[in-house]
Amino acid sequence: MKFEDGQDVKLGDIVSIELADGLHAAKVVMLGDSGDYAGIDDETAKWAIESQHVGQNEIMAEWVEGNPFAHDDPAYAPAGNTISTCLCDVVLMRRDNDPTRRRI
């Protein structure tokens, strides 16, 4: 997988994800093309791939500066701390060179 600028996407990369309210930092925890993952449990990784929650051209990332979708409204389900997204408008901010990597 590659970012729009041509760099390879790696587990542990800290990325900037553009949402309607601005940019938000997240850590790449799963690569949809290979099924590689780090920082999430085996059950979640298996579910994400088998359910196609993370597609071949997508990543799963975990928010690192607070969840932009978090809320306290009991009328709605709580928002998870991860996002599955394509790589459009996702930019590499910095790289973690030593994630613990697993594969589905």
Low-confidence stretches: none
In whole angstroms, the N-to-C terminal distance is 17 Å
> How much of the sequence is in beta strands?
25-35%
Strands ordered across the widest β-sheet = 5-4-2-1-6
Largest sheet: 5 strands, antiparallel
Shape: globular
What's the gyration radius in Å?
A: 13 Å
Which structural class do the helices and strands define?
A: mainly beta
Order of helices and strands: EEEHEEEE
Number of strands: 7
Query: Mean pLDDT score, rounded?
Result: 91
Helix fraction, binned, reads: under 10%
Count of alpha/pi helices: 1
Describe the structure.
This protein has one helix and seven strands; from the N terminus they run βββαββββ. It is mostly beta strands and 104 residues long. The chain starts with 13 loop residues before the first strand and ends with a strand. The strands form two sheets. It has a five-stranded antiparallel β-sheet, with no helix packed on it. A two-stranded antiparallel sheet has the order 3-7. The radius of gyration is 13 Å and the shape is globular. Helices cover 9% and strands 35% of the residues.
Task: Looking at this protein, list some descriptive labels.
single chain; 104 residues; 5-stranded antiparallel beta sheet; two-stranded antiparallel ribbon
Quick overview:
The chain is mainly beta.
Protein topology:
Layout lengths: L13 E6 L2 E10 L4 E2 L4 H9 L7 E6 L18 E5 L3 E5 L7 E2 L1
Antiparallel strand pairs: 1-2, 1-6, 2-4, 3-7, 4-5
